Amino acid sequence: MVKKKSSPGFECTECGWQTVKWVGRCAECQSWGTVAEKGAVKASTTPSRNLTAPAQTIAEVDSSVAEFRPTGIGELDRVLGGGLVPGAVILMAGEPGVGKSTLLLQTASAVASKHTSQPVLYLTGEESAAQVKKRAERTDALAQGLYLAAESDLGQALGQIEEVGPQLTIMDSVQTLSSAEIDGAAGGVTQIREVTAAMIEAAKRRNMTTILVGHVTKDGSIAGPRMLEHLVDVVCQFEGDRHSRLRLLRAVKNRYGPTDDVGCFDLSENGLESLADPSGLFISATTERVPGTCITITLEGRRPLTAEVQALVAESQAAQPRRAVSGLDSPRVSMLLAVLQRRAKLQALMKSEAYVSTVGGVKITEPAADLAVALAVASAALEKPLPSKFLAFGEVGLAGEVRPVAGIKRRLQEAARLGFTHAIVPRGAGEDAPEGIRIREIGSLPEALELILG
């Protein structure tokens, strides 16, 4: 006889952790009073004799049904690996107001205009259909084959899918969709898990691409159970500073393409526009040589971006001079200031205020920008401008050494394409230098300061 095993009877309402007995504190998320009893479900291990889709050899499987379909939005296709895959389920997450709904509405319009054989369905649980149309008129996202519906019930949403028969369905957002057959409020762990499972089942059965919009928590992670990211095929993160027009799209998980690429968009009142070459956004427009500025090449995924670091050093009468950083890692800048003071003998930094920032609101987190930050601060402290058409990159250690970084060849090719003629790079990187740019290899920070600033 086949034994039947009952599933755990208690579940955490915050993270979905399950246990066979009640406890006061969840062992997964450490929350108090969130473990509640749920209905016991009998799970049978009896094998089924009626197979709906018998197994095939790998040579017999038709892979043409899973080919990429370009959306018409270049940066989105770049991040996804080539476009939308039929039957794929994509989770799009981002902070409120970053532009998720605008991007997906423009995507729906572009797909409906490009692939006219099947319609596109946009389901909204946060706005009315009239409000979505107003935004579509403002962003010029009106298309003949685009259908709108305001639904917050799972059954009604699935009914709309059966009625329209779309090639692409966008649900904005999965936290607003709920099922009357499941206990819990919309946005709860149980509701999100069941709603996502139902949408995935409909997408696979109809070979329909589905995009789910997900909310994020205060720390930037996707709201709901962690299982949600495992269920879907692609997880995209839409990022951007509220005070900047630049928006970045990353693929955190992608079963059909790479996860080391990034898409750049320019957000304006007319919607989002793809940026094939966003380097000009992060460089100041001034043509004069000013002390305290240095250009560097940073990598966002596989894409090299040109960024400018600016520094200002001023005398201070306070016992503890102020340090202000914007767009960079503050502890790392403090470390570079200490290295400049001790290894490069810039003792004036001890009693000076230092302000370090990036141009255009770009955030630089990789250590490859250390050398550019150090040169900008030293240039400001010595009041000597750096040469024109010059850039630098490399990681600086506590001993003052300059270490190699990844993607040196790609960085130098981008610098040569943009017209830079001189570069300081870590030792051993000169063999990757393209034509038109002069490379100087250095092994330590004092050596770089002596070479550039004397």
From TrEMBL:
<dbReference type="GO" id="GO:0003684">
    <property type="term" value="F:damaged DNA binding"/>
</dbReference>
<dbReference type="InterPro" id="IPR041166">
    <property type="entry name" value="Rubredoxin_2"/>
</dbReference>
<comment type="similarity">
    <text>Belongs to the RecA family. RadA subfamily.</text>
</comment>
<feature type="region of interest" description="Lon-protease-like">
    <location>
        <begin position="353"/>
        <end position="454"/>
    </location>
</feature>
<dbReference type="GO" id="GO:0005829">
    <property type="term" value="C:cytosol"/>
</dbReference>
<keyword id="KW-0238">DNA-binding</keyword>
<dbReference type="InterPro" id="IPR027417">
    <property type="entry name" value="P-loop_NTPase"/>
</dbReference>
<dbReference type="InterPro" id="IPR020588">
    <property type="entry name" value="RecA_ATP-bd"/>
</dbReference>
<comment type="function">
    <text>DNA-dependent ATPase involved in processing of recombination intermediates, plays a role in repairing DNA breaks. Stimulates the branch migration of RecA-mediated strand transfer reactions, allowing the 3' invading strand to extend heteroduplex DNA faster. Binds ssDNA in the presence of ADP but not other nucleotides, has ATPase activity that is stimulated by ssDNA and various branched DNA structures, but inhibited by SSB. Does not have RecA's homology-searching function.</text>
</comment>
<dbReference type="GO" id="GO:0140664">
    <property type="term" value="F:ATP-dependent DNA damage sensor activity"/>
</dbReference>
<dbReference type="GO" id="GO:0016787">
    <property type="term" value="F:hydrolase activity"/>
</dbReference>
<dbReference type="InterPro" id="IPR004504">
    <property type="entry name" value="DNA_repair_RadA"/>
</dbReference>
<dbReference type="Pfam" id="PF18073">
    <property type="entry name" value="Zn_ribbon_LapB"/>
</dbReference>
<keyword id="KW-0234">DNA repair</keyword>
<dbReference type="InterPro" id="IPR020568">
    <property type="entry name" value="Ribosomal_Su5_D2-typ_SF"/>
</dbReference>
<dbReference type="InterPro" id="IPR003593">
    <property type="entry name" value="AAA+_ATPase"/>
</dbReference>
<dbReference type="InterPro" id="IPR014721">
    <property type="entry name" value="Ribsml_uS5_D2-typ_fold_subgr"/>
</dbReference>
<dbReference type="GO" id="GO:0008270">
    <property type="term" value="F:zinc ion binding"/>
</dbReference>
<protein>
    <recommendedName>
        <fullName>DNA repair protein RadA</fullName>
    </recommendedName>
</protein>
<dbReference type="Pfam" id="PF13541">
    <property type="entry name" value="ChlI"/>
</dbReference>
<dbReference type="Pfam" id="PF13481">
    <property type="entry name" value="AAA_25"/>
</dbReference>
<keyword id="KW-0346">Stress response</keyword>
<keyword id="KW-0863">Zinc-finger</keyword>
<keyword id="KW-0378">Hydrolase</keyword>
<dbReference type="GO" id="GO:0000725">
    <property type="term" value="P:recombinational repair"/>
</dbReference>
<dbReference type="GO" id="GO:0005524">
    <property type="term" value="F:ATP binding"/>
</dbReference>
<feature type="short sequence motif" description="RadA KNRFG motif">
    <location>
        <begin position="253"/>
        <end position="257"/>
    </location>
</feature>
<comment type="function">
    <text>Plays a role in repairing double-strand DNA breaks, probably involving stabilizing or processing branched DNA or blocked replication forks.</text>
</comment>
<keyword id="KW-0479">Metal-binding</keyword>
<feature type="domain" description="RecA family profile 1">
    <location>
        <begin position="65"/>
        <end position="216"/>
    </location>
</feature>
<keyword id="KW-0547">Nucleotide-binding</keyword>
<feature type="binding site">
    <location>
        <begin position="94"/>
        <end position="101"/>
    </location>
    <ligand>
        <name>ATP</name>
    </ligand>
</feature>
<keyword id="KW-0067">ATP-binding</keyword>
<keyword id="KW-0862">Zinc</keyword>
<keyword id="KW-0227">DNA damage</keyword>
